[in-house]
Amino acid sequence: MDPGNGSDVLPEELTASVESFFDTAPPLQGSSLISHKLQAFIDRNSKSSEGGGPVRVVCVTSGGTTVPLEQRCVRYIDNFSSGHRGAASTEYFVKAGYAVIFLHRRGSCQPYCRYLPEDSFLDFFELGEDSSIQVCQSHSTIVKKAIGDYQNAVERGQLLKLPFTTIFEYLQVLRMVAISMRPLGSYGMFYLAAAVSDFYVPWESMAKHKIQSSSGPLDMRLSQVPKMLSMLRKEWAPMAFCISFKLETDGNILLQKADMAMKKYHMHVVVANLLATYKREVIVVTDNGCINVCSQDEYSDVEEEMIKILVDRHSKYLE
Ligand code: PMT
């Protein structure tokens, strides 16, 4: 097995912009608790699995990052993503025996909760005669399954949830996760489904207080967020199996962009998807060619087949 992460030298310009991003980011709240949780999770899963071999651990990133416009944030730029892809994929990775670090946007879709109501949570419950709270009969099967699957994953130590909101939090936690997964070597996997901001306002040049509309039209220059995929591959976790996503709106450039990401960032797999069809169709791009994956019908998840393919690719990588 070859980490295949290309030349070991990162372009100086990239290293400098990454350093500057982290040096100027606001301090991560609760970083020692995150670090403690991560260490405990990795320690637990570094030991042998029931079958004897080491446990595979995947970091699933999910949901969109925000870009604050003010330090005491009233307004922000958001990224499109419900977190459904990451939540569904987490369930299938757990089913395949992986331990999952679910790095997700606060308030986005959660594993095992995808079928619970979005609008009125209260529709699921009713009051019993003795004023006890019960799940309505019509929803009980779905809720029982969700609770059972979720508790199994947690009790077996297969699920660690870490939240983020801003681009600063996301990249700081991603770096912590990646560095703590380094000892797992090639048993570690990254599945980067989060929609990550490409532009941001550096903390030191950000307005401290609410921007006043009385000052007239807003003229703002956004800096480019350094692409962290190269850092992940070359510095943070060079042996891990890395899958990134490519979302486009124009089908004519999708595969070309996915191919470019494979080569430029030395990804092992890129999952290409189009905004118009991403819920039911993806293309798994590997160095051996492309595999089209479509959901069978409106009740099945495209993630089920996709995760089988990715687990199989990871097994081959481990060989
Ligand atoms: O959550 P859902 O509503 O179910 O939607 C799922 C999805 C469409 C968001 C998902 O399938 C998807 O395509 N996610 C990636 C979207 C995206 O941000 O694509 P991109 O082309 O901008 O970025 C490509 C890759 O680079 C991503 O894996 C991203 O993690 C990474 N990236 C992006 C920007 C940046 N500054 N640094 C990065 O590392």
Give a structural overview.
This protein has 319 residues and is α/β, with parallel strands linked by helices. The chain is built from 8 helices and 14 strands. Strands 7-4-1-8-11-12-13-14 form an 8-stranded mixed beta sheet, sandwiched between helices. A two-stranded antiparallel ribbon has the order 2-3. The longest helix is centred in the middle third of the chain and has 19 residues, at 137-155. The protein is globular. Residues 81-85, 192-196, 198, 225, 227-229, 244-247, 273, 278 line the site of ligand PMT. InterPro entries: CoaB-like_sf (IPR035929), DNA/pantothenate-metab_flavo_C (IPR007085). Pfam families: DFP (PF04127). It comes from Dioscorea zingiberensis.
- What is the end-to-end distance? 7 Å
Mean pLDDT: 93
**Unreliable residue stretches:** none
Bound molecule kinds, no repeats: ligand PMT
Strand content: 15-25%
Main sheet properties: 8 strands, mixed
Q: DSSP helix count?
A: 8
Strands ordered across the widest β-sheet: 7-4-1-8-11-12-13-14
Radius of gyration from the alpha-carbon trace, in angstroms: 21 Å
Helix content: 25-40%
Quantity of strands, as a count: 14
Helix-strand topology string: HHEEEHEEEHEHEEEHEHEEEH
Structural class label: alpha/beta
Based on Cα principal axes, name the global outline: globular
Organism: Dioscorea zingiberensis
GO molecular function, one term: catalytic activity
Family: Belongs to the PPC synthetase family.
Protein name: DNA/pantothenate metabolism flavoprotein C-terminal domain-containing protein
